[in-house]
């Protein structure tokens, strides 16, 4: 009875691995380490390899008596997905098919998938619930929507039960400072705000302040990475208890603007965040935040951390690891 965690050496994966170990669950991580960091696993079982290596995946499942999979391994840079779509179709979609075929052959029928609220594109209304139209606006988002469909069909043909966890904006670091996000590749707001506050970049570019929101900047649902990890622990328990598959929005239900994030950082860090208002970024929705009713009802999960908790943990992590 153990869990195969693909991409477990990544940002959300490593926090989930830690939460699963704290909950006493047996697990093994499969990660290519192309983008992941083995140090973040804090000693958890790691096999370095690719989700497309069917023989390796089958061998891992057999050797570790795997009964569940949580699948993080994927590329997630929205901009890159539009300039290198083949990389995303092959890894995120074809890679998942190869993975699923291998774990099914080993008898696995319980699957948690790292999906995204971006499958809905620009929401017609907020808060966003799981019945909103599927309308991806990037190749990255389409790979998530397509993978959800493929996993649904494996439910029809092979009895695979899948919980699709649709993340909102994951941010922050472990509350005890043990692990956090590697900001090397990230173009997400919170790590860039930290870089600006720490002088690693001259200033943050704020992509537009002329949106129809209270302060003119875009609104997002920032969710603490430890809350996100807890949602995975609960989703796996739900499936282990015979629970049905589900699509679940994983967000706090609270919207925060770009300027809210900047002001919170300045207040908590006691440092200025140099920024400049520039043109809007193509594809940015004005506002998106979750309706968390279904995940609360299905998993008994609610976010425990606030935006201040997110910023405090991110500041503590990045100011102690400004080299990465
Ligand atoms: C947040 C806000 C920007 C950078 C993310 C993930 C996506 C999905 C949903 C999981 C926006 C503004 C940003 C900057 C800025 N999650 N911003 N200057 O676009 O909401 O999407 O959450 O799958 O994968 O990327 O996140 O952090 O890029 O932007 O003004 O330098 O910050 O305009 O309003 P986004 P983000």
Q: Give a short account of the largest sheet.
A: 7 strands, parallel
* Annotated CATH architecture of the largest domain: 3-Layer(aba) Sandwich
Encode the helix/strand succession as letters. Answer: EHEEHEHHEHEEHEEEHEEHEHH
Q: Could you give the count of β-strands?
A: 13
Average pLDDT reading:
97
Estimate percent helicity: 25-40%
Q: State the secondary-structure class.
A: alpha/beta
Ligand identities: UDP-4-deoxy-4-formamido-beta-L-arabinopyranose
CATH homologous superfamily designation of the largest domain: NAD(P)-binding Rossmann-like Domain
Main-sheet strand order equals 3-2-1-4-5-6-11
Strand residues, percent? 15-25%
Brief write-up:
With 324 residues, the chain is an alpha/beta fold.
Description:
By secondary structure, this protein is α/β, with parallel strands linked by helices. The chain has 2 domains: 2-170 and 223-250, Rossmann fold; 171-221 and 253-320, UDP-galactose 4-epimerase, domain 1, CATH 3.90.25. Helices cover 39% and strands 17% of the residues. The chain contains 10 helices and 13 strands. The chain has helices at residues 11-22, 54-63, 78-83, 85-105, 139-158, 189-197, 225-240, 258-269, 293-299, 307-320, and strands at residues 2-6, 27-31, 46-48, 66-71, 110-116, 161-167, 169-171, 204-207, 219-220, 222-224, 246-250, 256-257, 275-278. The protein has a 7-stranded parallel sheet with strand order 3-2-1-4-5-6-11, sandwiched between helices. The chain has a two-stranded parallel sheet with strand order 7-10. The protein is globular and about 55 Å long. The mean pLDDT is 97. The structure holds UDP-4-deoxy-4-formamido-beta-L-arabinopyranose.
